[in-house]
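Example record for the data management plan.
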Amino acid sequence: MGAVGVTAMVLAGLTAAGAAATAAPCSFPRVTASGLDVSSKGSGGDGMLPSGTVRATDGTRLTYFAFVPAHPVASLVFFHGSGADSTLGYLGFGRALAANGVAAYLFDVRGHGASGGPRGDTPSPGQLIADVSTDVGVAARAHPGLPVFVGGHSAGAGIVLNSVTALGSRVSGYVLVAPDFGLHSGTESVADAANFATVCQAPLIAATLSNGLVDGHRDAVAFAYTPAQVRSGLIPRYTAAMAIGQNVNDARSILSRIRRPVGLWIGARDEVFSPAKVVAFAHAAPQRFLSTTIVPGATHLSVLDSVGPQVASWIRAHA
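Corresponding structural encoding:
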């Protein structure tokens, strides 16, 4: 559900003094109020069971929810944001895509929802990239000959951007919804997204300096999810490995290297990222195939309630 890239703020401060701080204990505040507006109509699951699973390269079970029309023109593999899963705000988006001719495959990131793996953790940041490639294979095999698009919401878009090089020509385009462009993008609506995520610097520094050998699986980020939201399935904490894996170090450079269409949508009332800053950042990259839309009245989560038909129309135009 977003903004995990901004929680990797310490990646900019890898100094000797910072490394010495890795022994410091982590302390996370008690959450009494949600850091996000969760009033969107699609904020809860509706009892739908997963459509299938695929095995990751390390054997972990990756689960997805499929919405497939009778005659799809393309497919979209899509990833949720920080701490969420496909049943928490995304099923309506998938149905809207299918109703408009696009087969949607909503994947639970490992360590989330119905997918396997320790909650909020990954063996390494690189494993998330390998998972995206595996997930794209599901849609490609299900619809031979049809173009496959890949996208994500918030931090899910971060995972997708980190996977661009690995995906190469297998992908026909990218869908970014309220995208997290990472620490160095300066696109946050609130400085450091302090209303949503609390960062413990020590494990992030240690994991980065040691390439994950030290503190990679130690809790490093806590999200402002209430106890009730956690009981509903939201993941309240991420390890250093998961936080680093979802952070985009140089989104502008990645965007400039994409030779496929890129569509971006963000709500005008997004409380995590500044719509104006996100759009300006995206257009500053030398990206010839980019289109951007600011959705009136939509927040970070509620944007998912309305953009399905728009995203499907954009995919059909580029398929």
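Summary line stored alongside the record: The CA atoms of residues 222 and 237 lie 4 Å apart.
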